[in-house]
Amino acid sequence: MPLRFLLLSNLMSMVYWGVMSQPHNHNQPKRMLPTPQGGYWFTIAMVIAGLVLFAFIYSYVDSTTLKKTPEIAISQLAHDISAGNVKSIAIDENDLDITYADQTNKISKKESDAALTDTLANYGVSKDALDKVEISVTRESQFALLLSEVAPFSSRCFSF
User: Fold this and answer.
1) For the structural domain made of 74-142, what CATH number should be given?
2) How far is 144 from 159, CA to CA, in rounded Å?
3) pTM for this predicted structure
4) Interhelix angle for 40-65 vs 2-15, to 10°?
């Protein structure tokens, strides 16, 4: 994060000093703000171009360093639980974060209108196999809940 901040601040500094600075004529009265080279529209276009460039660089760096967690079907999860390979499951609304006995992580989705245990029982997972799996439910913070009511898109943009 600090590296990205430094890149952005350096980029904005270069745009400001490269576009906004002009040689001053000391015989003329000083103005409050210098007129940018090329006009204000050129300055606005340069700032937007800088932001777009920064967005491209950020998305490239983020996509190359981001490790994708494999997603499995709920039927595969049921098979893995029956085989005794699953150590724990963390439920966040309809998202499942699955930790296996060999410490690998995978993700899955559950049905929104049914409990996970009912869904797994429908797939044939025995109660004994399910008892060996630690199941935890994470709840949404109060701030995130309030924010999702005020601005419904915010829960998709921010994770609290």
Assistant:
1) 3.30.720.210
2) 8
3) 0.51
4) 160
